[in-house]
Amino acid sequence: MTSQAGTLAVQNLSWSINQRQILQPMTWSLGAGERLGIIGPNGAGKSTLLKLLAGLIAPTSGEVLLNQHAILTISSKFRAQQIALLTQEIDPASTDTVWQLVALGRLPYQHWYQSLADVDCELISEALHHTDLADRAMSRLSELSGGELQRAHLARVLVQQTGVLLLDEPTNHLDVQHQHQLMALTRKHALKRDLTLVASFHDLNLAASYCDKLLLLDQGKFIALASPQEVLTSATLEQVYQRPCLVDNNPFDGSPRVTFAPELA
Amino acid sequence: MSIRLKLLLLLFGLLVSLMVCLQIGAVPLSWSALVEPKLDGGMSQQIFFELRLPRLLLGVLAGASLALCGGLLQDLSRNQLADPYLFGIVAGAAFGATIVTVWLPNLSIALPIAAFIGALLAISLVIAFVSVNRRNQLEHWVLAGVAVSFLLSSLGSAFLYMGDAFAANRIMFWLMGSLARAQITAVWVIAPVLFMTLAIIIFWRREIAALHFADATAKSLGVAVNKVRLGLLLCSAALTAVVVSYCGGIGFVGLLVPHLIRFWLGNSPLPMLFGSALAGAILLIWVDAAARTLLPSQEIPLGVLTSAIGSMFFLLLLARRR
């Protein structure tokens, strides 16, 4: 079974730990094939929200609906066929090979007695080719550059063939060139396969360029979910980031461009 | 060379080592007298079946088990320094052995049983701590293991201090590790646990591969991370416990062998773990052969040799790897 684009919705979703509320109740939904960027300062709850969306942790209240089904009622194997997560915790010292990592993406489709079928191997080769890693298949992950490593992890989630893709700060630790390379690659596949994409960002401009909707969080509070033009206004951003800022348009693609005022000497 | 070929080579190496090591010992054995007992009044046969073979089989099982557990625990904890003694298993076994040696000095049969119970106690303490704490995180497992290990060693030392010198001596020797107490019963106890662990590893090979990465990644792939990790931890704890109960402390096999094999065969769980088991078996029977024959009239404790060879080799390995 291959992926069909998925819908995601959260209803009254919140999460607390030790009486501390990390995410305040929020309700919103995302249509099939939409690309959502989650933005907000450190500690806004971006990673927690992604883990909730992925069904890895149980919400304190409310629920996450994946294709109208409560995600925690879906078997973990079937869930892994519908939703994939690229976490921030990427071990750059791993001695696994690129192939081993990417092949893990087929795990949700295999029974214990099966080994990789030809179809699986083709999918893996294809993903390696698309992420420009075909000649690195047998390299250890520890030998890769930061950009290659992130692409290898992207190849793994692509091979998982899910309708929904969750990426937790995928462009962290990458230089400008590789940030755009990774996001362009992700967008290309999202468009081609009609994927629903949710990614968190620190870089507001990157989020504005590659996403068609933005979700702004501040200290666990839902601030806005709308188009980049509607969310990225100087009034909102100054309140959330506590810094004067200027919003104009990126001359290349017309998306909103945010410039924060530096602290003047 | 393909991985399959390398594994076959290891298997072949084990078979050759078995044939050679059966010959090594105080008394030379002739194959012809083994087949034809009349030639020497059955002495060769007796030595073979009652001394050499049980000891060699125990060596194979102990070496394979320790190396397997070491490799498995390194994968499960994502910590290259993990070894079978991580969860206080040896300290627990020594504690059990100490109590029996101090209080029931004449019951030598009770020693492996008490050691096993001690090992189980150590693991139960670790698991109890981790589950009471409700923080099922890797660091908790490892740190709780270290703490339990120290707790039980200090208790064991206290008992030993209050006991007589003879008991202290026995425990010291036991802790140094040896296959000299080899009985065929040890083989019957260890073999099923080893094979059960191997079967579970085959069943969960992909889950183990997923655990090489962050827990969140493994969970997002549909792996029941806590179940798999706990199940495999219990397997390796049981396996280490039975081995330690019969052979005492044989250090460094579980740390060194998986390292070498990862280097040679790569990191993929099945080849790495099965390769480690084969290499651990080969290593231990050769070291035991050396332990039996290096000094003319007495044996060197096995654990002393493995730790000495292992630690030096390990340093060499680290120095060579940038």
Kindly list the characteristics that best describe this protein.
heterodimer, A: 265 residues, Rossmann fold, 6-stranded mixed sheet, 4-stranded antiparallel sheet, 9 helices, B: mainly alpha, ABC transporter involved in vitamin B12 uptake, BtuC, 77% helix
Biggest β-sheet: strands ordered side by side in the sheet of chain A: 6-7-8-3-9-10
CATH superfamily of chain B: ABC transporter involved in vitamin B12 uptake, BtuC
Any idea of the CATH topology of chain A? Rossmann fold
Could you tell me the mean pLDDT of chain A? 93
The total domain count of chain B is 1
Q: Output the helix-strand order of chain A.
A: EEEHEEHEHHHEHEHEEHHEE
Q: Count the strands of chain A?
A: 12
How many structurally independent domains of chain A? 1
Q: Overall 3D geometry of chain A?
A: globular
Number of helices of chain A: 9
CATH architecture identity of chain A: 3-Layer(aba) Sandwich
Class of chain A, according to the CATH hierarchy? Alpha Beta
Q: What is the level 1 CATH name of chain B?
A: Mainly Alpha
